[in-house]
Amino acid sequence: MSELKNDRFLRALLRQPVDVTPVWMMRQAGRYLPEYRASRERAGDFMGLCTNPELACEVTLQPLQRYPLDAAILFSDILTIPDAMGLGLYFEAGEGPRFRKTVSTEADIEALPVVKPEQDLPYVVDAVATIRRELNGRVPLIGFSGSPWTLATYMVEGGSSKDFRRTKQLAYNQPELMHRLLGKLAVSVTDYLNAQIRAGAQAVQIFDTWGGALSHAAYGEFSLAYMEKIVSGLIGENDGRQVPVILFTKGGGQWLPRLAATGAHCLGLDWTTDIGAARSLVGDRVALQGNMDPAVLYAAPARIRAEVAAILASYGRGPGHIFNLGHGITPQVDPAHAGVFIEAVHELSAAYHDN
Ligand code: CP3
């Protein structure tokens, strides 16, 4: 494998010194880029992009051709796991993800297979290897998965949900059944992330998008416990380098010390948490990733720079910060504004590091 030319993202995840704060954007390959929309057109649809390793590689690299980003993220989706379990993922135009089958009874849960990634999701493993080859050491590649709880919400609801009525009904009425589902998902996610690491992923992120919908107690029982299991089951190394793990619970700002105790290297923050306050809470146990409100990218360039400056000032001096948005970049953002954001991070952060 070729030498890594820009390792500031991996260094920051391990809280090692860097020259400037590294930056990437959740959903950095996506609909706000015209070149992404053109590739999707050629593939036919979104799943056509995900299942073709050459096209998945092409769209992964698109944002890196425009911007000096410090990391690439595999182009795929968290819902490939339930799809591989046989639920039949599809996307209705403008409606988000949907499953042909849902999970609600004991028989449904018993019938779900544990995913064998090399066999059931070869297109993801191949995409990781293809992207690593094409990146040629330019920046590290991030692999990812959904958290068991977040995946379970889509599997039980059959798609996106506002109130998670069915999922919470199952969790509160038949907790032992919910635990069986989450246990199967945790084994599948661990194997899936390890397959991505073996294929070349240099860091991994677990997206717990809906953990924040749970109560304090239910979060520990139904989401955190399973992420902790996954973290302890991951291969720690790739090419002789540590593979850091990032946990991102959207809405999880109150649970940072509990998240830091899982053994993860870095916690992702949404924009509702003050990053400086978060840093005082977790101390030197973990790095922090985030956390500008993605909607700031709709504002004028001067305002974008001011928001970046405020977050850098809040975090303060020293290593352990990876700049990101507090959630994914949205389709209506002007690509030039994403450029302003990334440039501002590099330019304004130099003063916070020893150079
Ligand atoms: O960050 C990246 O650039 C990597 C690619 C990536 C996608 N989805 C591509 C995608 C990643 C990391 C995801 C994760 C994902 N997928 C999450 C967790 C992160 C988050 O945003 O909270 C969730 C909840 C999903 C499920 C999912 N996939 C939804 C709800 C949707 C529809 C949302 C929408 O914006 O319409 C998807 C589809 C999806 N995944 C798209 C992309 C680029 C849009 C599909 C398209 O091109 O039409």
TrEMBL record:
GO terms classed as biological process: protoporphyrinogen IX biosynthetic process from glutamate
Domain Uroporphyrinogen decarboxylase (URO-D): from-to ranges: 22-31, 142-158
Any GO CC annotation of this UniProt entry: cytosol
Key words, A-Z: Cytoplasm, Decarboxylase, Lyase, Porphyrin biosynthesis
Superkingdom per UniProt: Bacteria
Residues of the site described as Transition state stabilizer: 77
GO molecular function terms noted in the UniProt entry: uroporphyrinogen decarboxylase activity
InterPro entries: UROD/MetE-like_sf, Uroporphyrinogen_deCO2ase_HemE, Uroporphyrinogen_deCOase
Enzyme kind, highest EC tier: lyase
Swiss-Prot/TrEMBL catalytic activity: uroporphyrinogen III + 4 H(+) = coproporphyrinogen III + 4 CO2
Annotated binding of substrate, by residue: 27-31, 77, 154, 209, 327
Pfam families (alphabetical): URO-D
First-listed, main subcellular location of the protein, grouped into a coarse class: cytoplasm
Subcellular locations according to the entry: Cytoplasm
Complexes and interactors: Homodimer.
Entries under NCBIfam families matching the protein: hemE (TIGR01464)
Function: Catalyzes the decarboxylation of four acetate groups of uroporphyrinogen-III to yield coproporphyrinogen-III.
PANTHER family registered for this protein in UniProt: METHYLTETRAHYDROFOLATE:HOMOCYSTEINE METHYLTRANSFERASE RELATED, UROPORPHYRINOGEN DECARBOXYLASE
Family: Belongs to the uroporphyrinogen decarboxylase family.
Protein name, entry field: Uroporphyrinogen decarboxylase
Upper taxonomic lineage: Bacteria, Pseudomonadati, Pseudomonadota, Gammaproteobacteria, Cellvibrionales
Gene transcribed to yield this protein: hemE
